[in-house]
């Protein structure tokens, strides 16, 4: 349980109170009460809480010393900017961002809608998953992804841990710190993206240009993990990851590696021992044949031949479940470009301005 504490200097800050939870000090708005820890990751500590003004349960994420690392600061700014603009039932809602008492803040507190668990925990649990569970999860993931892609957003870090689930099996995509808008170009295309096990071949091969198909590959890896209750490509490092993929998909023809723009990378693929691969129906013998067919179309080595999100939603596996009229595209494509070399003071000011979107009454009152 959370313990209310007094600040070290003995003085309360206006509109704030203090809790300790998971060995972490939370300095939060007085309208919120913490209830229990939810999770801890590289980018923050998350606790469940209650908005006492609305009686609504929420998730409160503390990002500690956000400016200690430029990557963390940029991730936080990107998450703030994108979630302010995104509205879809299969994407997490950022409900509030707490305003610090002044611009010299070190920590950031984000308030999200509260979900019960994530897909990673469900897959790892002994809870049985029916064919309908699997179908419903994939349907919702694709619906949310179709909306994101219509807004020019590549998520770039889809994995079971970034898919939040409610008790009624509603799914919402979260964690947009690595997301980019596909109209951006240049340096972001070559930086580290996507947890390795869910990383598309074109990223493993350091291709300079990639698109929405990287997210489709990640969906395929997640789909396989739901079916088999374990990761399909649990690589230990980049080259091992490629070998695992080839061992399942089989050796690639010359026509299937033309997309690789790096001669050394193309040569490496050709040096791998020949393998016929393994048919996915052998890996997942209990799966519906239409599920296997869709999975095969997602896990295609050549991104130009991989199924699109729209095509996947129209696949027979989801027959009768997807209604495009109930899933309209984003009204305005998002074109978000951040200068990766911004000064800390600029990032700080931009985060402050994002906070003010959630605190309009404070715009004229803040120092």
From TrEMBL:
It catalyses: L-seryl-[protein] + ATP = O-phospho-L-seryl-[protein] + ADP + H(+); L-threonyl-[protein] + ATP = O-phospho-L-threonyl-[protein] + ADP + H(+). Keywords: ATP-binding, Kinase, Magnesium, Nucleotide-binding, Phosphoprotein, Serine/threonine-protein kinase, Transferase. Pfam families: Pkinase. Its EC number is 2.7.11.24. SUPFAM superfamilies: Protein kinase-like (PK-like). Activated by threonine and tyrosine phosphorylation. GO terms for molecular function: ATP binding; MAP kinase activity. Belongs to the protein kinase superfamily. CMGC Ser/Thr protein kinase family. MAP kinase subfamily. Belongs to the protein kinase superfamily. Ser/Thr protein kinase family. MAP kinase subfamily. This is Mitogen-activated protein kinase.
